[in-house]
Write a structure and sequence with these properties.
Length: about 210
């Protein structure tokens, strides 16, 4: 079973590194996918949004048929939606994937690949209105959203919650719990500042905790 995570220049680091951590722990402790791959258009180093340099395992040309594909976001997603080679790769892989996932503004790449039409989806709070403006997506202000075999999440750190929920759906809650405990991912409930009370905060943050 092959799980691919796409990267590209100016991708947001935690968008893919957080899910990668959960994914590889899933493979190690709970019988997750055998092959976990970082996929780039070429195998040349990718410079991420905050300056991290990452070497893909495989290029588009070398990439095997994927069972699952995760598409992160970041500032680079704004230009990659116009990269026909990348969009076609996502569209072609998406035709046979059991599930396609996005983190943050990776949802716009899924849309460009024709995978969000008529679907419920979410994205980073700062891009919710841009996603609504596309017209054929039902935007839901949740931490993560599943609609059939398409999963999308809110921004950056939300990708880890997305992956844990996805693992639970595929391998069960016990497996997700093993991954969560190994990662020691139990976010503190403390909220700093008052962003959840501001108008632009997504609906899920405004709900009582």
């Amino acid at each position: 079973m092959n799980f691919g995570i796409l990267i590209f220049n100016q991708v947001e680091e935690l968008d893919f590194a957080g899910p990668w951590e959960m994914l590889t722990l899933w493979s190690k402790v709970a019988d997750g996918p055998e092959n976990c791959l970082i996929v780039g258009e070429t195998k040349s180093a990718v410079t991420c949004a905050k300056g991290l340099s990452v070497n893909p395992h495989v290029s588009f040309e070398e990439c095997p048929k994927l069972d699952y594909l995760l598409v992160p976001g970041g500032i680079g997603a704004r230009t990659q939606v116009n990269n026909r080679i990348l969009v076609d790769f996502v569209a072609n892989q998406g035709q046979h994937c059991q599930a396609v996932l996005s983190v943050c503004t990776g949802s716009f790449i899924l849309h460009a690949a024709g995978l969000l039409s008529g679907k419920k989806a979410t994205t980073h709070w700062g891009s919710l209105e841009r996603l609504r403006a596309l017209g054929n997506v039902q935007v839901v202000e949740e931490r993560y959203v599943r609609d059939g075999n398409v999963w999308t999440s809110a921004g950056i750190s939300a990708g880890m919650d997305l992956m844990l929920a996805f693992i639970a759906s595929v391998s069960g809650e016990t497996a997700a719990g093993q991954v969560q405990s190994q990662a020691e991912y139990y976010p503190a409930s403390t909220r700093y500042g008052d962003f959840e009370h501001q108008e632009q905060a997504p609906a899920y943050l405004k709900q009582p905790t």
